[in-house]
Amino acid sequence: MNSVDQYRNYLLELKETIDQLPIELIEATVEQIHLARINHRQIFVMGNGGSATTASHFACDLGKNTVMAGAPRLRVQALNDNMAFFSACANDYGYETVFAEQLANFLQPDDVVLAISASGNSANVLKAIQLARSCGAFTIGWSGYQGGKLAKLVDLSLVIPSDSIEQIEDIHLMVAHMVTVALRKTAQNGFLINTGRQFHTLVPN
């Protein structure tokens, strides 16, 4: 295989995976974050390594790129961004606590906790999701491969159907952008949401 074929194969595999994405689960993620928005709930995102950068990017986009006159702002933070707190917990309590300890300070019932883990088996992510569930938060997991333990633990699981870590991370960021754009358009359209029972339109003040 020459180098050009290598790049083309990567793109072909990526496209095939994108074509298999469960759009309804992405829409469900948008609905949950939008409900958090109009109910003034908090959104927490987290991840390790490449997924940490996706979590930070996502939190930035949600906090800035969904701002709309008359609409509540999204109250969002990435738990991997406070390195002083993060490293203190890792040093004193163990790396598996770095997200759960932060959630314990802020989490309220009906908040949204979104974990990004390609493997779905990161111990610190799983511990945080367990805490979130015990507190009555709505939990979302983005993973890859077969979903790992995370897929079975969360209320809403989006598994990228791929065995390529790079492509899983590519698509996680793409989904984050899709969610951001959808939330911005939802606000622009006057807050049309699906609560699971009926549609409501909330017009910005």
What does this structure look like?
The protein has 205 residues and is α/β, with parallel strands linked by helices. It has a single domain, classed as Glucose-6-phosphate isomerase like protein, domain 1 (Rossmann fold). The chain has helices at residues 3-19, 23-38, 50-64, 83-92, 100-106, 123-134, 148-153, 165-188, and strands at 42-47, 75-78, 112-116, 138-143, 156-159, 192-194, 199-201. A hairpin with a 4-residue loop joins strand 6 (192-194) and strand 7 (199-201). Helix 2 (23-38) packs across helix 8 (165-188) and helix 5 packs parallel to helix 6 (123-134).
Task: Provide a short characterization of the protein structure.
With 205 residues, the protein is of the alpha/beta class. 52% of the residues lie in helices and 15% in strands.
Layout: helices, strands, pairs:
Blueprint: H1 3-19, H2 23-38, E1 42-47, H3 50-64, E2 75-78, H4 83-92, H5 100-106, E3 112-116, H6 123-134, E4 138-143, H7 148-153, E5 156-159, H8 165-188, E6 192-194, E7 199-201
Parallel strand pairs: 1-2, 1-3, 3-4, 4-5
Antiparallel strand pairs: 6-7
Q: How many strand units? A: 7
Radius of gyration computed on alpha carbons: 17 Å
Q: List the helices and strands in order.
A: HHEHEHHEHEHEHEE
CATH topology: Rossmann fold
The computed structural class is alpha/beta
Helix content: 40-55%
Largest sheet geometry: 5 strands, parallel
> What is the straight-line distance between the termini?
59 Å
How much beta, percentage-wise? 15-25%
Index terms:
205 residues, disordered C terminus, two-stranded antiparallel sheet, Rossmann fold, 8 helices, 7 strands, alpha/beta
